[in-house]
Amino acid sequence: MGDDSIKLPPGFRFSPTDEELIVHFLYRKASVLPCHPDVIPDLDLYPYDPWELNGKALQGGNQWYFFSRRTPNRVSANGYWKSVGVDEPIVSNDGKKVGMKKYLVFYIGETSAGIKTNWIMQEYRLSDCGSSSSRSSKRRGTTKLDSSKWVLCRVYERNNSDDDDNDDDGTELSCLDEVFLSLDDLDEISLPN
Amino acid sequence: MPEEMSLSVNGQSRVPPGFRFHPTEEELLHYYLRKKVAFEKIDLDVIRDVDLNKLEPWDIQEKCKIGSTPQNDWYFFSHKDKKYPTGTRTNRATAAGFWKATGRDKIIYSNFKRIGMRKTLVFYKGRAPHGQKSDWIMHEYRLDDHQTSSSSSSSSDPNGSNSMGEAAQEEGWVVCRVFKKKNHHKAIDSPKSTAIITDSKAQMFNPNNDGALDQILQYMGRSCKQENENSMNGINIHTFTRANTNNNQHNNLRLLRPTEIAINNGLYERFMQLPALESPTLTSLPNDRSQDCGSQACYPPLDDAQVLSDAGLRGSAVHLNPVYHSEPGLSDWTALDRLVASHLNCQTTETCKHLACFNEPSMAFSSPAPPPPDDQDLPLPQLRSSNSSTFNRSYQNTHDYNSEIDLWSFTRSSSSSSDPLCHVSNTSL
Protein backbone atom coordinates (compact mmCIF):
# COMPACT_ATOMS: atom_id res chain seq x y z
CA MET A 1 0.00 0.00 0.00
CA GLY A 2 0.97 3.57 -0.42
CA ASP A 3 3.54 2.77 -3.05
CA ASP A 4 1.73 4.25 -5.94
CA SER A 5 3.53 7.43 -6.53
CA ILE A 6 5.77 7.39 -9.50
CA LYS A 7 8.31 9.67 -10.94
CA LEU A 8 9.07 9.33 -14.59
CA PRO A 9 12.34 10.32 -16.19
CA PRO A 10 12.58 13.50 -18.24
CA GLY A 11 10.72 13.38 -21.49
CA PHE A 12 7.62 11.65 -20.23
CA ARG A 13 4.52 13.77 -20.25
CA PHE A 14 0.85 13.34 -19.91
CA SER A 15 -0.26 13.06 -23.49
CA PRO A 16 -3.31 10.84 -23.52
CA THR A 17 -5.27 9.79 -26.54
CA ASP A 18 -8.95 10.59 -26.75
CA GLU A 19 -9.66 6.96 -26.14
CA GLU A 20 -7.54 6.86 -23.02
CA LEU A 21 -9.25 9.92 -21.66
CA ILE A 22 -12.60 8.32 -22.11
CA VAL A 23 -11.92 4.69 -21.37
CA HIS A 24 -9.29 4.92 -18.75
CA PHE A 25 -10.05 8.10 -16.94
CA LEU A 26 -13.58 9.29 -17.49
CA TYR A 27 -15.16 5.88 -17.45
CA ARG A 28 -13.57 5.05 -14.16
CA LYS A 29 -14.49 8.36 -12.69
CA ALA A 30 -18.10 7.93 -13.68
CA SER A 31 -18.18 4.37 -12.40
CA VAL A 32 -16.50 5.33 -9.14
CA LEU A 33 -13.78 2.85 -9.94
CA PRO A 34 -10.33 3.40 -8.59
CA CYS A 35 -8.30 5.14 -11.21
CA HIS A 36 -4.64 4.54 -11.25
CA PRO A 37 -2.75 6.70 -11.65
CA ASP A 38 -5.26 9.08 -10.15
CA VAL A 39 -3.71 12.11 -11.72
CA ILE A 40 -6.60 14.15 -13.00
CA PRO A 41 -8.12 16.35 -10.35
CA ASP A 42 -11.80 16.94 -9.91
CA LEU A 43 -12.53 20.64 -10.17
CA ASP A 44 -16.26 20.15 -10.11
CA LEU A 45 -17.84 23.44 -11.10
CA TYR A 46 -15.31 25.80 -9.67
CA PRO A 47 -15.51 28.95 -11.74
CA TYR A 48 -11.88 29.04 -12.74
CA ASP A 49 -10.85 31.11 -15.66
CA PRO A 50 -8.77 29.04 -18.04
CA TRP A 51 -5.55 30.82 -17.17
CA GLU A 52 -6.12 29.97 -13.54
CA LEU A 53 -5.97 26.26 -14.17
CA ASN A 54 -2.23 26.10 -13.87
CA GLY A 55 -1.46 24.30 -10.65
CA LYS A 56 -5.05 23.22 -10.20
CA ALA A 57 -5.55 20.97 -13.16
CA LEU A 58 -3.16 18.33 -14.45
CA GLN A 59 -0.78 19.78 -16.95
CA GLY A 60 0.48 17.85 -19.91
CA GLY A 61 2.48 19.94 -22.30
CA ASN A 62 0.51 23.12 -22.76
CA GLN A 63 -2.77 21.49 -21.94
CA TRP A 64 -4.67 21.17 -18.73
CA TYR A 65 -6.88 18.28 -17.73
CA PHE A 66 -9.57 18.10 -15.08
CA PHE A 67 -12.84 16.44 -14.27
CA SER A 68 -15.93 18.48 -13.95
CA ARG A 69 -19.60 18.05 -13.57
CA ARG A 70 -21.52 18.37 -16.74
CA THR A 71 -23.26 21.67 -17.12
CA PRO A 72 -25.02 23.44 -19.94
CA ASN A 73 -23.66 26.82 -18.91
CA ARG A 74 -20.03 26.82 -18.10
CA VAL A 75 -19.37 30.18 -16.55
CA SER A 76 -16.22 31.36 -14.83
CA ALA A 77 -15.29 34.39 -12.85
CA ASN A 78 -14.48 36.52 -15.87
CA GLY A 79 -16.25 34.92 -18.72
CA TYR A 80 -17.96 31.90 -20.14
CA TRP A 81 -17.44 28.94 -22.42
CA LYS A 82 -19.44 28.76 -25.58
CA SER A 83 -19.68 25.58 -27.57
CA VAL A 84 -18.73 25.60 -31.23
CA GLY A 85 -19.01 23.18 -34.03
CA VAL A 86 -20.43 19.73 -33.90
CA ASP A 87 -19.67 17.16 -31.25
CA GLU A 88 -17.29 14.49 -32.39
CA PRO A 89 -17.64 10.85 -31.57
CA ILE A 90 -14.68 9.16 -29.93
CA VAL A 91 -14.16 5.74 -31.35
CA SER A 92 -12.01 3.17 -29.63
CA ASN A 93 -9.37 1.09 -31.30
CA ASP A 94 -11.76 -1.73 -31.92
CA GLY A 95 -14.27 0.55 -33.55
CA LYS A 96 -16.70 1.08 -30.72
CA LYS A 97 -18.05 4.48 -30.00
CA VAL A 98 -17.01 5.19 -26.46
CA GLY A 99 -17.75 8.85 -26.02
CA MET A 100 -18.20 12.30 -27.43
CA LYS A 101 -16.05 15.38 -27.61
CA LYS A 102 -17.42 18.88 -27.55
CA TYR A 103 -15.44 21.99 -28.43
CA LEU A 104 -15.88 25.21 -26.53
CA VAL A 105 -14.27 28.61 -26.82
CA PHE A 106 -13.76 30.93 -23.91
CA TYR A 107 -15.26 34.41 -24.04
CA ILE A 108 -14.37 37.16 -21.64
CA GLY A 109 -17.24 39.22 -20.36
CA GLU A 110 -20.96 38.94 -19.90
CA THR A 111 -22.78 36.09 -21.50
CA SER A 112 -23.62 36.74 -25.13
CA ALA A 113 -21.58 39.92 -25.14
CA GLY A 114 -18.16 38.53 -24.48
CA ILE A 115 -14.95 38.79 -26.36
CA LYS A 116 -13.65 35.65 -27.94
CA THR A 117 -10.33 34.35 -26.73
CA ASN A 118 -7.89 31.73 -27.90
CA TRP A 119 -8.73 29.42 -25.04
CA ILE A 120 -10.21 26.16 -26.20
CA MET A 121 -11.87 23.47 -24.17
CA GLN A 122 -12.49 19.96 -25.31
CA GLU A 123 -15.15 18.44 -23.16
CA TYR A 124 -15.23 14.65 -23.18
CA ARG A 125 -18.28 12.77 -22.12
CA LEU A 126 -19.26 9.16 -22.21
CA SER A 127 -21.60 7.95 -24.88
CA ASP A 128 -25.14 8.45 -23.79
CA CYS A 129 -26.25 4.90 -24.20
CA GLY A 130 -23.40 2.97 -25.68
CA SER A 131 -21.19 3.07 -22.67
CA SER A 132 -22.94 0.42 -20.68
CA SER A 133 -23.72 -1.98 -23.48
CA SER A 134 -20.49 -3.63 -24.35
CA ARG A 135 -18.12 -3.09 -21.55
CA SER A 136 -20.07 -3.58 -18.41
CA SER A 137 -20.68 -7.21 -17.90
CA LYS A 138 -23.60 -8.66 -16.09
CA ARG A 139 -21.47 -8.91 -13.02
CA ARG A 140 -21.67 -5.21 -12.76
CA GLY A 141 -25.39 -5.20 -12.77
CA THR A 142 -25.53 -3.21 -9.61
CA THR A 143 -23.11 -0.58 -10.73
CA LYS A 144 -25.08 2.45 -11.67
CA LEU A 145 -23.07 4.14 -14.34
CA ASP A 146 -23.68 7.80 -13.96
CA SER A 147 -22.45 8.66 -17.39
CA SER A 148 -24.28 11.91 -17.60
CA LYS A 149 -22.76 13.50 -14.58
CA TRP A 150 -19.06 13.74 -15.28
CA VAL A 151 -17.06 15.20 -18.08
CA LEU A 152 -13.36 15.40 -18.60
CA CYS A 153 -12.04 18.71 -19.82
CA ARG A 154 -8.91 19.45 -21.74
CA VAL A 155 -8.12 23.13 -21.91
CA TYR A 156 -5.42 24.83 -23.90
CA GLU A 157 -4.63 28.13 -25.43
CA ARG A 158 -4.40 28.16 -29.13
CA ASN A 159 -1.14 29.78 -29.90
CA ASN A 160 -1.01 32.19 -32.77
CA SER A 161 2.60 33.01 -32.60
CA ASP A 162 3.87 29.50 -32.96
CA ASP A 163 4.03 27.93 -36.30
CA ASP A 164 2.20 24.73 -36.87
CA ASP A 165 3.73 22.96 -33.93
CA ASN A 166 2.07 23.82 -30.70
CA ASP A 167 4.39 21.96 -28.46
CA ASP A 168 7.31 21.11 -30.57
CA ASP A 169 7.72 17.45 -29.96
CA GLY A 170 9.30 17.13 -33.34
CA THR A 171 7.19 14.32 -34.64
CA GLU A 172 5.96 16.51 -37.40
CA LEU A 173 8.12 17.84 -40.09
CA SER A 174 8.24 21.56 -39.95
CA CYS A 175 7.00 23.46 -42.95
CA LEU A 176 10.52 24.12 -43.95
CA ASP A 177 11.52 20.52 -43.67
CA GLU A 178 8.70 19.72 -46.00
CA VAL A 179 9.96 22.29 -48.40
CA PHE A 180 13.46 20.93 -48.24
CA LEU A 181 12.23 17.40 -48.51
CA SER A 182 10.28 18.25 -51.59
CA LEU A 183 13.21 20.03 -53.05
CA ASP A 184 15.10 16.78 -52.94
CA ASP A 185 12.77 15.55 -55.59
CA LEU A 186 13.35 18.42 -57.90
CA ASP A 187 16.19 16.79 -59.67
CA GLU A 188 18.41 16.81 -56.65
CA ILE A 189 18.94 20.49 -56.27
CA SER A 190 21.88 20.20 -54.01
CA LEU A 191 22.16 22.43 -51.05
CA PRO A 192 25.57 22.97 -49.65
CA ASN A 193 25.59 21.00 -46.47
CA MET B 1 21.22 6.40 -7.53
CA PRO B 2 18.05 4.42 -7.87
CA GLU B 3 18.54 0.79 -8.52
CA GLU B 4 18.30 -0.37 -12.06
CA MET B 5 14.83 -0.47 -13.42
CA SER B 6 13.45 -1.26 -16.75
CA LEU B 7 10.47 0.16 -18.48
CA SER B 8 8.66 -3.07 -18.82
CA VAL B 9 8.62 -5.91 -16.40
CA ASN B 10 7.46 -9.29 -17.56
CA GLY B 11 6.26 -7.65 -20.71
CA GLN B 12 4.08 -5.25 -18.80
CA SER B 13 4.60 -1.59 -19.26
CA ARG B 14 5.38 0.48 -16.27
CA VAL B 15 4.46 3.67 -18.00
CA PRO B 16 1.09 4.64 -16.62
CA PRO B 17 -1.80 5.19 -19.00
CA GLY B 18 -1.88 8.56 -20.63
CA PHE B 19 1.85 9.16 -20.32
CA ARG B 20 4.09 9.15 -23.32
CA PHE B 21 7.74 9.68 -23.97
CA HIS B 22 7.70 12.98 -25.77
CA PRO B 23 11.00 14.56 -24.94
CA THR B 24 11.80 18.03 -26.08
CA GLU B 25 14.86 18.52 -28.17
CA GLU B 26 16.50 20.10 -25.21
CA GLU B 27 15.77 17.08 -23.06
CA LEU B 28 17.12 14.79 -25.72
CA LEU B 29 20.35 16.68 -25.99
CA HIS B 30 20.90 18.08 -22.57
CA TYR B 31 19.72 15.18 -20.53
CA TYR B 32 19.96 12.01 -22.55
CA LEU B 33 22.74 12.55 -25.02
CA ARG B 34 24.93 14.34 -22.54
CA LYS B 35 24.63 11.45 -20.15
CA LYS B 36 25.36 9.02 -22.91
CA VAL B 37 28.46 10.84 -24.01
CA ALA B 38 29.68 11.11 -20.46
CA PHE B 39 29.09 7.39 -19.88
CA GLU B 40 26.56 8.14 -17.20
CA LYS B 41 23.85 5.70 -16.50
CA ILE B 42 20.47 6.61 -17.89
CA ASP B 43 17.42 5.87 -15.84
CA LEU B 44 15.04 3.25 -17.03
CA ASP B 45 17.04 2.63 -20.14
CA VAL B 46 14.45 4.60 -22.05
CA ILE B 47 16.65 5.13 -25.07
CA ARG B 48 18.52 2.15 -26.43
CA ASP B 49 21.65 1.79 -28.48
CA VAL B 50 21.08 0.80 -32.02
CA ASP B 51 23.35 -0.07 -34.88
CA LEU B 52 21.78 2.00 -37.56
CA ASN B 53 23.33 -0.01 -40.34
CA LYS B 54 21.68 -3.17 -39.17
CA LEU B 55 18.22 -1.87 -38.48
CA GLU B 56 15.56 -1.09 -41.02
CA PRO B 57 13.22 1.73 -40.08
CA TRP B 58 10.23 -0.56 -39.88
CA ASP B 59 12.04 -2.70 -37.33
CA ILE B 60 12.85 0.25 -35.14
CA GLN B 61 9.40 0.42 -33.62
CA GLU B 62 9.74 -3.03 -32.18
CA LYS B 63 13.29 -2.53 -31.05
CA CYS B 64 12.75 0.86 -29.51
CA LYS B 65 9.32 0.65 -28.04
CA ILE B 66 8.80 2.12 -24.64
CA GLY B 67 6.54 0.07 -22.50
CA SER B 68 3.50 -0.98 -24.42
CA THR B 69 1.85 2.33 -25.08
CA PRO B 70 1.21 3.11 -28.73
CA GLN B 71 3.91 5.32 -30.16
CA ASN B 72 4.27 7.57 -33.12
CA ASP B 73 7.93 8.15 -32.67
CA TRP B 74 10.90 6.11 -31.56
CA TYR B 75 14.21 7.01 -30.01
CA PHE B 76 17.63 5.48 -29.98
CA PHE B 77 21.29 6.21 -29.60
CA SER B 78 23.51 5.54 -32.49
CA HIS B 79 27.25 5.73 -32.79
CA LYS B 80 28.25 7.43 -35.95
CA ASP B 81 31.24 6.09 -37.75
CA LYS B 82 32.91 7.38 -40.78
CA LYS B 83 32.00 5.82 -44.03
CA TYR B 84 35.50 5.93 -45.32
CA PRO B 85 38.67 6.15 -43.31
CA THR B 86 39.70 9.21 -45.23
CA GLY B 87 36.43 11.01 -45.64
CA THR B 88 34.08 12.62 -43.22
CA ARG B 89 30.82 11.26 -44.49
CA THR B 90 28.75 8.93 -42.45
CA ASN B 91 27.59 5.57 -43.57
CA ARG B 92 23.88 5.30 -42.99
CA ALA B 93 23.06 2.44 -45.28
CA THR B 94 21.07 -0.55 -44.18
CA ALA B 95 20.41 -3.81 -45.93
CA ALA B 96 17.26 -2.49 -47.56
CA GLY B 97 18.13 1.13 -48.16
CA PHE B 98 19.83 4.20 -46.81
CA TRP B 99 19.23 7.36 -44.84
CA LYS B 100 19.81 10.51 -46.75
CA ALA B 101 20.16 13.93 -45.22
CA THR B 102 17.80 16.63 -46.36
CA GLY B 103 17.69 20.34 -45.85
CA ARG B 104 19.92 22.12 -43.47
CA ASP B 105 20.83 21.26 -39.96
CA LYS B 106 18.85 23.08 -37.34
CA ILE B 107 20.52 24.64 -34.38
CA ILE B 108 19.11 23.60 -31.03
CA TYR B 109 19.15 26.18 -28.31
CA SER B 110 18.73 25.97 -24.61
CA ASN B 111 18.16 29.23 -22.83
CA PHE B 112 19.42 31.02 -25.88
CA LYS B 113 22.60 29.02 -25.76
CA ARG B 114 23.43 26.79 -28.63
CA ILE B 115 23.66 23.21 -27.42
CA GLY B 116 23.54 21.08 -30.51
CA MET B 117 22.35 20.43 -33.97
CA ARG B 118 19.59 18.49 -35.61
CA LYS B 119 19.94 16.80 -38.93
CA THR B 120 16.89 15.60 -40.82
CA LEU B 121 17.20 12.43 -42.84
CA VAL B 122 14.85 10.51 -45.07
CA PHE B 123 14.95 6.80 -45.65
CA TYR B 124 15.24 5.65 -49.21
CA LYS B 125 14.68 2.08 -50.19
CA GLY B 126 17.22 0.66 -52.55
CA ARG B 127 20.65 1.96 -53.34
CA ALA B 128 21.76 5.44 -54.20
CA PRO B 129 21.23 7.13 -56.54
CA HIS B 130 18.14 5.16 -57.44
CA GLY B 131 16.59 4.91 -54.03
CA GLN B 132 12.89 5.25 -53.58
CA LYS B 133 11.90 7.80 -51.00
CA SER B 134 9.91 6.50 -48.07
CA ASP B 135 7.90 8.23 -45.37
CA TRP B 136 10.40 7.39 -42.69
CA ILE B 137 12.05 10.43 -41.24
CA MET B 138 14.88 10.63 -38.79
CA HIS B 139 15.99 13.54 -36.71
CA GLU B 140 19.54 13.02 -35.67
CA TYR B 141 20.68 15.18 -32.78
CA ARG B 142 24.28 15.81 -31.95
CA LEU B 143 25.81 17.89 -29.27
CA ASP B 144 27.91 20.82 -30.21
CA ASP B 145 31.54 19.97 -30.34
CA HIS B 146 32.54 22.09 -27.44
CA GLN B 147 29.67 20.67 -25.46
CA THR B 148 30.84 17.18 -26.10
CA SER B 149 34.38 17.86 -25.16
CA SER B 150 33.60 19.94 -22.14
CA SER B 151 31.21 17.46 -20.65
CA SER B 152 33.43 14.50 -21.32
CA SER B 153 36.56 16.25 -20.31
CA SER B 154 35.45 16.11 -16.74
CA SER B 155 35.57 12.37 -16.83
CA SER B 156 38.41 11.84 -19.25
CA ASP B 157 40.98 14.02 -20.82
CA PRO B 158 40.99 17.48 -19.32
CA ASN B 159 43.08 18.79 -22.20
CA GLY B 160 40.74 17.33 -24.72
CA SER B 161 39.74 20.56 -26.23
CA ASN B 162 38.27 20.57 -29.64
CA SER B 163 41.17 18.99 -31.37
CA MET B 164 39.05 16.81 -33.54
CA GLY B 165 37.43 19.77 -35.19
CA GLU B 166 35.20 18.97 -38.09
CA ALA B 167 35.64 15.25 -37.79
CA ALA B 168 33.93 15.28 -34.44
CA GLN B 169 30.76 16.30 -36.20
CA GLU B 170 30.66 13.06 -38.04
CA GLU B 171 31.73 10.75 -35.29
CA GLY B 172 30.49 9.84 -31.91
CA TRP B 173 27.13 9.36 -30.26
CA VAL B 174 23.97 10.87 -31.57
CA VAL B 175 20.44 10.51 -30.35
CA CYS B 176 17.82 9.90 -32.99
CA ARG B 177 14.12 10.17 -33.27
CA VAL B 178 12.42 8.22 -36.02
CA PHE B 179 8.87 8.74 -37.14
CA LYS B 180 6.71 8.31 -40.15
CA LYS B 181 5.77 11.34 -42.10
CA LYS B 182 2.07 11.82 -42.06
CA ASN B 183 0.82 12.43 -45.51
CA HIS B 184 -2.85 12.63 -44.90
CA HIS B 185 -4.35 13.57 -41.61
CA LYS B 186 -2.41 13.78 -38.51
CA ALA B 187 -2.72 10.87 -36.20
CA ILE B 188 -6.19 10.52 -34.90
CA ASP B 189 -5.16 10.99 -31.34
CA SER B 190 -3.42 14.21 -32.05
CA PRO B 191 -5.45 16.97 -30.52
CA LYS B 192 -5.13 19.08 -33.58
CA SER B 193 -6.13 16.51 -36.11
CA THR B 194 -9.77 16.63 -35.30
CA ALA B 195 -9.79 20.30 -35.86
CA ILE B 196 -8.38 19.90 -39.28
CA ILE B 197 -10.75 17.21 -40.31
CA THR B 198 -13.89 19.03 -39.42
CA ASP B 199 -14.52 21.86 -41.74
CA SER B 200 -16.40 24.01 -39.36
CA LYS B 201 -13.55 23.83 -36.98
CA ALA B 202 -10.83 24.16 -39.49
CA GLN B 203 -11.22 27.87 -39.51
CA MET B 204 -11.26 28.20 -35.85
CA PHE B 205 -8.21 26.07 -35.31
CA ASN B 206 -6.22 27.13 -38.27
CA PRO B 207 -3.15 28.58 -36.78
CA ASN B 208 -2.55 31.99 -38.17
CA ASN B 209 0.34 31.66 -40.45
CA ASP B 210 2.79 33.65 -38.49
CA GLY B 211 5.44 31.03 -38.77
CA ALA B 212 8.56 30.68 -40.75
CA LEU B 213 6.75 30.37 -44.01
CA ASP B 214 5.02 33.60 -43.38
CA GLN B 215 8.30 35.26 -42.92
CA ILE B 216 9.49 33.82 -46.12
CA LEU B 217 6.44 35.05 -47.86
CA GLN B 218 6.87 38.47 -46.49
CA TYR B 219 10.43 38.33 -47.48
CA MET B 220 9.32 37.69 -50.98
CA GLY B 221 7.09 40.69 -50.75
CA ARG B 222 3.83 38.83 -50.81
CA SER B 223 0.94 38.90 -48.49
CA CYS B 224 0.30 35.58 -46.95
CA LYS B 225 -3.39 36.14 -46.73
CA GLN B 226 -3.66 36.87 -50.34
CA GLU B 227 -1.80 33.71 -51.13
CA ASN B 228 -4.09 31.76 -49.03
CA GLU B 229 -7.15 33.07 -50.73
CA ASN B 230 -5.68 32.48 -54.08
CA SER B 231 -5.01 28.92 -53.34
CA MET B 232 -8.45 28.40 -51.97
CA ASN B 233 -9.82 29.80 -55.16
CA GLY B 234 -7.74 27.42 -57.09
CA ILE B 235 -9.08 24.52 -55.18
CA ASN B 236 -12.66 25.46 -55.59
CA ILE B 237 -12.45 26.22 -59.20
CA HIS B 238 -10.51 23.18 -59.72
CA THR B 239 -12.89 20.88 -58.00
CA PHE B 240 -15.49 22.34 -60.19
CA THR B 241 -13.55 21.79 -63.36
CA ARG B 242 -12.82 18.29 -62.40
CA ALA B 243 -16.46 17.52 -62.21
CA ASN B 244 -16.86 18.62 -65.77
CA THR B 245 -13.86 16.91 -67.15
CA ASN B 246 -15.80 14.17 -68.76
CA ASN B 247 -17.80 16.25 -71.15
CA ASN B 248 -15.38 19.03 -71.45
CA GLN B 249 -11.78 18.15 -71.90
CA HIS B 250 -10.56 21.36 -70.53
CA ASN B 251 -7.40 22.23 -72.24
CA ASN B 252 -5.83 23.93 -69.34
CA LEU B 253 -6.73 21.50 -66.70
CA ARG B 254 -3.24 20.24 -66.67
CA LEU B 255 -2.15 23.56 -65.34
CA LEU B 256 -3.86 22.70 -62.15
CA ARG B 257 -2.47 19.29 -61.94
CA PRO B 258 -0.28 19.80 -58.91
CA THR B 259 -3.23 20.90 -56.90
CA GLU B 260 -5.27 18.11 -58.24
CA ILE B 261 -2.78 15.56 -57.22
CA ALA B 262 -2.41 17.14 -53.89
CA ILE B 263 -6.10 16.90 -53.36
CA ASN B 264 -6.37 13.41 -54.62
CA ASN B 265 -3.81 12.33 -52.19
CA GLY B 266 -5.40 14.17 -49.37
CA LEU B 267 -2.21 16.08 -49.09
CA TYR B 268 -3.87 19.37 -49.21
CA GLU B 269 -5.57 18.75 -45.95
CA ARG B 270 -2.26 18.67 -44.32
CA PHE B 271 -1.30 21.87 -45.96
CA MET B 272 -4.48 23.64 -45.16
CA GLN B 273 -2.56 25.26 -42.40
CA LEU B 274 0.07 26.62 -44.66
CA PRO B 275 -0.08 29.62 -46.82
CA ALA B 276 0.05 28.65 -50.42
CA LEU B 277 3.62 29.30 -50.90
CA GLU B 278 5.15 30.56 -54.00
CA SER B 279 7.97 28.28 -53.36
CA PRO B 280 8.52 24.72 -54.23
CA THR B 281 5.99 23.44 -51.71
CA LEU B 282 3.08 23.06 -53.98
CA THR B 283 5.00 22.12 -57.01
CA SER B 284 6.80 19.47 -55.21
CA LEU B 285 3.89 18.10 -53.32
CA PRO B 286 2.78 16.03 -56.23
CA ASN B 287 6.30 14.88 -56.76
CA ASP B 288 6.13 13.49 -53.32
CA ARG B 289 3.61 11.04 -54.49
CA SER B 290 4.52 10.90 -58.07
CA GLN B 291 5.38 7.26 -57.95
CA ASP B 292 1.76 6.59 -57.34
CA CYS B 293 0.25 8.97 -59.80
CA GLY B 294 2.78 8.86 -62.51
CA SER B 295 1.77 12.35 -63.41
CA GLN B 296 5.01 13.98 -62.77
CA ALA B 297 6.19 13.25 -66.22
CA CYS B 298 3.22 14.81 -67.92
CA TYR B 299 3.37 17.92 -65.84
CA PRO B 300 4.22 20.32 -68.59
CA PRO B 301 6.47 23.29 -68.41
CA LEU B 302 4.39 26.38 -68.17
CA ASP B 303 5.03 29.48 -69.95
CA ASP B 304 3.86 32.56 -68.26
CA ALA B 305 2.05 33.93 -71.22
CA GLN B 306 -0.19 30.96 -71.41
CA VAL B 307 -0.98 31.16 -67.79
CA LEU B 308 -1.65 34.81 -67.82
CA SER B 309 -3.96 34.54 -70.75
CA ASP B 310 -6.09 32.36 -68.59
CA ALA B 311 -5.84 34.74 -65.76
CA GLY B 312 -9.41 34.69 -64.63
CA LEU B 313 -9.56 31.05 -63.85
CA ARG B 314 -6.05 30.53 -63.01
CA GLY B 315 -5.00 33.09 -60.55
CA SER B 316 -3.60 30.33 -58.50
CA ALA B 317 -2.00 28.38 -61.24
CA VAL B 318 0.48 31.12 -61.63
CA HIS B 319 1.68 30.37 -58.21
CA LEU B 320 2.01 26.74 -58.78
CA ASN B 321 5.06 26.96 -60.86
CA PRO B 322 7.78 28.66 -59.02
CA VAL B 323 10.26 26.52 -60.80
CA TYR B 324 9.64 28.28 -64.01
CA HIS B 325 9.46 31.64 -62.47
CA SER B 326 12.78 33.04 -61.70
CA GLU B 327 11.96 34.54 -58.37
CA PRO B 328 15.12 36.18 -57.28
CA GLY B 329 14.44 35.71 -53.62
CA LEU B 330 14.06 32.00 -53.91
CA SER B 331 17.58 31.34 -54.81
CA ASP B 332 18.87 33.29 -51.93
CA TRP B 333 19.09 30.50 -49.45
CA THR B 334 21.31 32.35 -47.11
CA ALA B 335 18.67 34.93 -46.50
CA LEU B 336 16.12 32.23 -46.14
CA ASP B 337 18.24 30.52 -43.58
CA ARG B 338 18.58 33.64 -41.56
CA LEU B 339 14.86 33.95 -41.44
CA VAL B 340 14.46 30.38 -40.45
CA ALA B 341 17.07 30.61 -37.80
CA SER B 342 15.55 33.70 -36.35
CA HIS B 343 12.27 31.96 -36.19
CA LEU B 344 13.57 28.75 -34.76
CA ASN B 345 15.29 30.57 -32.01
CA CYS B 346 12.06 31.50 -30.39
CA GLN B 347 10.94 27.95 -30.14
CA THR B 348 13.50 27.02 -27.61
CA THR B 349 11.97 29.12 -24.91
CA GLU B 350 9.03 26.85 -25.21
CA THR B 351 10.99 23.77 -24.35
CA CYS B 352 12.42 25.14 -21.16
CA LYS B 353 9.00 25.30 -19.68
CA HIS B 354 8.56 21.59 -19.93
CA LEU B 355 11.74 20.94 -18.18
CA ALA B 356 10.62 22.73 -15.12
CA CYS B 357 8.74 19.80 -13.72
CA PHE B 358 11.64 17.49 -14.15
CA ASN B 359 14.26 19.45 -12.41
CA GLU B 360 15.38 16.48 -10.48
CA PRO B 361 17.18 14.20 -12.83
CA SER B 362 17.40 11.26 -10.54
CA MET B 363 14.12 9.57 -10.33
CA ALA B 364 12.34 7.20 -8.18
CA PHE B 365 10.02 5.49 -10.51
CA SER B 366 7.52 3.36 -8.70
CA SER B 367 9.59 3.72 -5.65
CA PRO B 368 8.27 1.68 -2.77
CA ALA B 369 8.39 4.55 -0.37
CA PRO B 370 5.76 7.25 -0.47
CA PRO B 371 7.16 10.57 -1.54
CA PRO B 372 7.87 13.28 0.93
CA PRO B 373 4.88 15.57 1.09
CA ASP B 374 6.73 18.49 -0.32
CA ASP B 375 7.87 16.58 -3.32
CA GLN B 376 6.97 18.53 -6.40
CA ASP B 377 8.39 16.32 -9.06
CA LEU B 378 5.36 14.98 -10.81
CA PRO B 379 4.28 12.65 -8.10
CA LEU B 380 1.29 10.67 -9.03
CA PRO B 381 -1.21 10.69 -6.25
CA GLN B 382 -1.85 7.51 -4.42
CA LEU B 383 -4.88 5.45 -4.89
CA ARG B 384 -7.81 6.53 -2.95
CA SER B 385 -7.11 4.59 0.12
CA SER B 386 -10.59 3.32 0.68
CA ASN B 387 -10.69 1.73 -2.67
CA SER B 388 -7.20 0.58 -2.91
CA SER B 389 -7.37 -1.69 0.06
CA THR B 390 -10.12 -3.69 -1.48
CA PHE B 391 -8.40 -3.43 -4.70
CA ASN B 392 -5.10 -4.84 -3.64
CA ARG B 393 -6.52 -7.48 -1.46
CA SER B 394 -8.79 -8.95 -4.00
CA TYR B 395 -6.13 -8.89 -6.58
CA GLN B 396 -3.62 -10.62 -4.46
CA ASN B 397 -6.13 -13.27 -3.65
CA THR B 398 -6.16 -14.41 -7.18
CA HIS B 399 -2.63 -13.64 -8.20
CA ASP B 400 0.41 -14.01 -6.16
CA TYR B 401 2.41 -11.30 -7.77
CA ASN B 402 4.38 -8.53 -6.39
CA SER B 403 1.76 -5.87 -6.28
CA GLU B 404 3.80 -2.94 -7.32
CA ILE B 405 4.52 -4.18 -10.76
CA ASP B 406 1.13 -5.48 -11.40
CA LEU B 407 -0.64 -2.34 -10.51
CA TRP B 408 0.47 -1.19 -13.88
CA SER B 409 -0.39 -4.29 -15.66
CA PHE B 410 -4.01 -4.27 -14.90
CA THR B 411 -4.61 -0.63 -15.18
CA ARG B 412 -3.30 -1.05 -18.63
CA SER B 413 -5.98 -3.47 -19.65
CA SER B 414 -8.66 -1.15 -18.54
CA SER B 415 -11.05 -1.70 -21.34
CA SER B 416 -11.11 -5.43 -21.39
CA SER B 417 -13.88 -7.15 -19.59
CA SER B 418 -11.48 -9.51 -17.95
CA ASP B 419 -10.10 -6.53 -16.21
CA PRO B 420 -9.52 -7.46 -12.63
CA LEU B 421 -11.02 -4.16 -11.65
CA CYS B 422 -14.38 -5.28 -12.83
CA HIS B 423 -14.07 -7.95 -10.33
CA VAL B 424 -12.93 -5.51 -7.73
CA SER B 425 -15.76 -3.18 -8.30
CA ASN B 426 -18.05 -6.06 -7.91
CA THR B 427 -16.73 -7.06 -4.60
CA SER B 428 -16.54 -3.57 -3.30
CA LEU B 429 -20.08 -2.70 -4.07
TrEMBL record, chain A:
KW Transmembrane (keyword) present: no
Domain NAC, residue spans: 8-158
UniProt-listed SUPFAM superfamilies: NAC domain
Entry's Gene Ontology molecular function annotations: DNA binding
GO biological process: regulation of DNA-templated transcription; system development
Alphabetically ordered keywords of this record: DNA-binding, Nucleus, Transcription, Transcription regulation
KW Phosphoprotein (keyword) present: no
Domain of life: Eukaryota
Name under which the protein is recorded: NAC domain-containing protein
Source species of the chain: Protea cynaroides
UniProtKB/TrEMBL annotation, chain B:
The entry's keywords: DNA-binding, Nucleus, Transcription, Transcription regulation
Positions of the NAC domain: 15-181
Region feature Disordered, mapped onto this chain: 146-167, 365-396
GO BP: any one term: regulation of DNA-templated transcription
InterPro entries: NAC-dom, NAC_dom_sf
Signal sequence, renumbered to the chain: none
Ranges annotated as biased composition (Polar residues): 384-396
PANTHER family: NAC DOMAIN-CONTAINING PROTEIN 43-LIKE (PTHR31744:SF221), PROTEIN CUP-SHAPED COTYLEDON 2-RELATED (PTHR31744)
Identification of the protein by name: NAC domain-containing protein
Source organism: Protea cynaroides
